Amino acid sequence: MEKLPKIAFPFIIGIIVLIIVVSKSLVTIGPGEGGVLFEPLGGGVNTEHTYGEGFHIVAPWNDMIVQKVRQQSISENMNVLSVNGLDITVSGTIWFQPEFKNLGNLIQTKGEDYIRELLNPAINAAAKSVVGRYTPEQLYSSKRDIIELEILEEVRNELDGQFVNVKRVLVENVKLPTTIKDAIERKLKQEQESLEYEFRLVTAKKEAEKVIIEAQGKADANRILSASLTDKILQDKGIEATVKLSESPNSKTIIIGSGDSGLPIILGNQ
Questions:
Q1: pTM for this one?
Q2: What letter would DSSP give residue 192?
Q3: Shortest CA distance to 115 belongs to which of 80, 45, 68, 66?
Q4: Structural domain range at position 48
Q5: Closest Cα partner for 164 from 107, 238, 223?
Q6: What is the spatial distance between Cα 123 and Cα 109, in angstroms, rounded to a whole number?
Q7: Domain final position from 136, 155, 176
Q8: pLDDT band for position 171 (50/70/90)?
Q9: Which residue in 121, 138, 214, 257 is a FRET match for 46, CA 20 to 30 A apart?
Q10: CA-to-CA distance for 242 and 232, rounded, in angstroms?
Q11: Which of 242, 234, 236 lies closest to 266, judged by CA?
Q12: Domain Band: where (predicted)?
């Protein structure tokens, strides 16, 4: 077997080095991601430029730090105290998005694990502050939407100027001690039954008022009509009715004398 020429060894080593350099210099940033350069020879994290999706060529002695820059969410289970000191577990989700242009500043100040270093403490602090203003009953029932908005506002205040935008906060579950939860549910059920009973009473009262009003209207109409029916009007109406009846083709009319009111008396209808 023939030995390789001496010049072949440096050539092979050069190819290997070239492959390493090229592989380290070509960086792919995926969809919804951004990258910032860490330059060991140039002052650390480059905060001036954020790289977008696609292929990028960087110096082999630099590192590309890639992070998600699209909207993301994290869920937390937080143990907090109500206004009366009751221990409550609140489960919530927060939607956030790092600022693309300031990704370098975010990583430089908070590190690559900024979610644990920055977001989690801010969420917990906001939840404790807001939940501590309410009673267990308010947390369990009627105040959920207001609590979400207040936590969102608190988190935004905590993260102001920290290069992360918080989009929304959702309080998914409020876990109370079983005895407290059962007592609240019984109270809510009683209140609902009371409201239904009041509704039935109000409905019945309105129906009774409607019947009274209709009866009163009919009585008033009859009274007005009775007052307007004089003997002369009744006589005229009787004459009109007698004429129409006499003109009917199905009637044979015989008029004999007159009645007490002066109207004709009609006999012999067919």
A1: 0.60
A2: H
A3: 68
A4: 8-68
A5: 107
A6: 19
A7: 176
A8: confident
A9: 121
A10: 15
A11: 242
A12: 24-188
- Give tens-digit pLDDT for 33-54: 999 999 988 889 999 999 999 9
CATH label of the domain that carries residue 162: 3.30.479.30
| Exposure string for 239-259, b = 16+ CB within 10 A, e = fewer | eeebeeeeeeeeeeeeeeeee
Residue 265 neighbours by CB distance under 10 Å: 11
Domain-ending residue, one of 68, 89, 105: 68
Which residues in the chain belong to E strands, given as ranges?
Answer: 26-29, 33-39, 44-45, 54-57, 63-68, 72-81, 87-98, 164-175, 254-258, 264-267
pLDDT for position 175:
81
Identity of the amino acid at 257: G
Q: How confident is the model at residue 176 (pLDDT cuts 50, 70, 90)?
A: confident
Q: How far apart are CA 74 and CA 50, in angstroms?
A: 24
For residue 90, give both structure tokens.
Answer: 């609140």
